[in-house]
Structures are given as structure tokens and as C-alpha cells.
């Protein structure tokens, strides 16, 4: 794997991580302002933001689907593997962000 692809995987991880952490915390501030319990709202938002964090990290789902399609029909299997690695990196980042939020809020 080349250096550029590794850096893309790292960026995907941290973008997804940041979307979950940032979205949940800013949403918790909003919950506090309207009188809802902020910690449980932060935990709920972190759970709901995981899929959107993955989509944001890989740059939209249509590019990933097109890359997989190109790999299947054109016989370029490396495109399928790279796309799956990118999705896994984004999934790992989103899950890690959710785990950190659960750890901070102490809700299971």
C-alpha cells in the first residue's frame, strides 16, 4: 500500500471520530440550553451520528459504491479492497468516538 492511501485511511478514521465527538458534544450544549438532560442526550446523539460520520469520512456513499462497481465489472479488485479498507477505517473511527462518549458520560 502506498503512503497516500495510508494517509487517506488515517484521515477517514479521524474525520469519523471527530464527527461523532463534536456532534455529540455540541448537541449536548443544545440539550442543556433547552432543559433536556445533556449527558443522556450526548450518548443518544453519539449513537445516532455513527452512520453519518462514516458517510462524511468516505466522502459520500456513491463514490464508494461506484468504486466497488468498477472493481467488479472492470476486474480491478484492488479498488474493492481499498474501498473496503476506507469503510472499515471510517467505521472504526465512528465506533471509537462512540466508545469515548460512553466512557465520558458513563452510560451503557
Task: Write up what this structure looks like.
The model has no long low-confidence stretch (mean pLDDT 89). This protein has one domain. It is mostly helical. It has 4 helices and no strands. The longest helix is centred in the N-terminal third of the chain and has 32 residues, at 3-34. Helix 1 runs parallel beside helix 4 (77-105) and helix 3 (61-74) packs antiparallel against helix 4. The chain has helices spanning 3-34, 38-58, 61-74, 77-105. Keywords: Membrane, Transmembrane, Transmembrane helix. The chain crosses the membrane at residues 12-34, 49-68, 80-104. This is Sporulation protein.
Helix and strand composition category: mainly alpha
Q: What is the global morphology?
A: elongated
Instruction: Name the poorly predicted regions.
Output: none
Mean pLDDT: 89
| H-E order | HHHH
Distance between the termini: 38 Å
Helical content stands at: over 70%
Radius of gyration: 16 Å
* Tally of DSSP β-strands: 0
Question: Tally the helices: what do you get?
Answer: 4
Q: What does the main sheet amount to?
A: none
- Number of discrete domains: 1
Instruction: Quote the beta fraction.
Output: under 5%
